[in-house]
């Protein structure tokens, strides 16, 4: 509410209202002054997201480490279907991809509760480091699997096509995210750079959904059906848990709502 002078009648109340998440009251998922940024990983519904993403990662890791090592298996069908190099490459790909998605989820969670200039600066730096590490993990995983494929067809399955689309979006997202914050001059100054932040946030949530869809599609590949045996229902449930933890913490004003 503004007075006749155009100034807010109660700046503190207005600022409080601008910190309202999609679900809950204003301030419910805000970083408190004097509290370390590490608490951002667990504020509000973030606990649900943490349970979901760690269960998703554990599901993938368990399928690799708990099952008998297929490269030493005497199973005739599996031995003829996959070479040792192929199995190891796929294991590396799955481990690196799941680690990348885990890190990028943490990058979202750590930044969401920030609301003061100091918090936003610190949160953005941590967000950038986590995202960069996650992206490097994903890229290394992609390189490993593509080198192993050799002359075989690339990006032909629904999983491969969806994964390629997601990777392309991710690269563009990362480039824009880094430059719009650390090189604002490329956009004509701070005001213009900040004007597209909301689109960067929206696309970030979309990419997270795309990654979960890609993992779900991976459960339908022949390699998963014959070797890893990761269940589609497990990926769907854990992905939904992450989204149930992330979406309610979205700040309305950060998306221009």
What are the low-pLDDT stretches, counting only 5+ consecutive residues below 50?
Answer: 1-17, 70-80
SS class: mainly alpha
Q: How many β strands by DSSP?
A: 0
- Specify the helix fraction band: 55-70%
The helix/strand order is HHHHHHHHHH
Proportion of strand residues: under 5%
**Averaged pLDDT:** 83
- The gyration radius over C-alpha positions equals 21 Å
Q: What does the model show?
A:
65% of the residues lie in helices and 0% in strands. Helix 2 runs antiparallel to helix 4 and helix 5 packs antiparallel against helix 6. It is globular. The two termini are 17 Å apart.
Mind sketching the topology for me?
Blueprint: H1 11-17, H2 46-65, H3 76-81, H4 84-111, H5 117-149, H6 158-182, H7 190-194, H8 197-218, H9 222-228, H10 232-246
Helix pairs in contact: 2-4, 2-10, 4-5, 5-6, 6-8, 8-10
Task: Label this structure with key terms.
257 residues; single chain; globular; mainly alpha; disordered N terminus
Summarize, please.
With 257 residues, the protein is mainly alpha-helical. It has helices spanning 11-17, 46-65, 76-81, 84-111, 117-149, 158-182, 190-194, 197-218, 222-228, 232-246. The radius of gyration is 21 Å and the shape is globular.
């Amino acid at each position: 509410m503004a007075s006749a002078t155009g100034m807010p009648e109660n700046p503190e109340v207005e600022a409080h209202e601008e910190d309202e998440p999609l679900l809950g009251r204003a301030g419910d998922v805000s970083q408190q002054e004097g509290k370390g940024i590490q608490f951002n990983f667990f504020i509000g519904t973030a606990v649900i997201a943490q349970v979901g993403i760690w269960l998703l990662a554990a599901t993938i890791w368990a399928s690799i480490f708990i099952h008998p090592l297929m490269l030493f298996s005497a199973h005739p069908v599996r031995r003829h279907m996959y070479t040792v190099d192929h199995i190891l490459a796929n294991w590396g790909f799955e481990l690196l991809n799941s680690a990348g998605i885990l890190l990028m989820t943490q990058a979202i969670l750590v930044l969401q509760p920030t609301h003061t200039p100091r918090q936003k600066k610190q949160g953005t730096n941590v967000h950038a480091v986590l995202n960069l590490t996650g992206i490097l993990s994903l890229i290394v995983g992609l390189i490993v699997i593509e080198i192993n494929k050799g002359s075989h067809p690339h990006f032909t399955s629904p999983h491969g096509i969806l994964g390629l689309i997601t990777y392309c979006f991710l690269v563009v997202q990362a480039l824009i995210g880094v430059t719009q914050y650390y090189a604002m001059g490329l956009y004509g100054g701070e005001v213009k750079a900040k004007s597209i932040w909301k689109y960067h946030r929206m696309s970030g949530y979309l990419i997270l959904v795309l990654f979960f869809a890609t993992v779900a599609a991976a459960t339908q590949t022949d390699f998963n059906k014959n070797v890893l045996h990761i269940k589609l229902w497990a990926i769907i449930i854990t992905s939904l848990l992450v989204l149930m933890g992330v979406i309610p913490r979205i700040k309305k004003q950060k998306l221009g709502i």
